[in-house]
Design brief:
This protein is α+β, with helices and mostly antiparallel strands. Helices cover about 40% and strands about 20% of the residues.
């Protein structure tokens, strides 16, 4: 089942993560951070996300999108809607 993965700065507007494989993206975050969605991500998560971005061969660069959102807003919350 495919999912759309959303993010929003804490207490602000929301947007979505453009990913090639939502289920794999969710599982990779779970394995890397030990968190299920919904979850919050912040500056301390950027080094791990940069490593994940370096290994990402997808066309849409979802991890880079997360990094940009965190750098712009500080803390972002991610969740999935099916």
């Amino acid at each position: 089942m495919s999912a759309t993965i959303y993010w929003r700065p804490v207490a602000k507007r929301m947007s979505y993560i453009d990913t090639d494989a939502p289920s794999s993206f969710i599982e990779a975050l779970r394995e890397a951070f030990g968190r299920d969605l919904p979850a919050k991500f912040a500056g301390e998560d950027i080094p791990v996300l940069k490593g994940m971005a370096a290994a990402d061969r997808g066309q849409r660069k979802a991890y880079e999108g997360m990094i940009k959102a965190i750098e712009e807003f500080g803390i972002v919350e991610l969740w999935a809607e099916y």
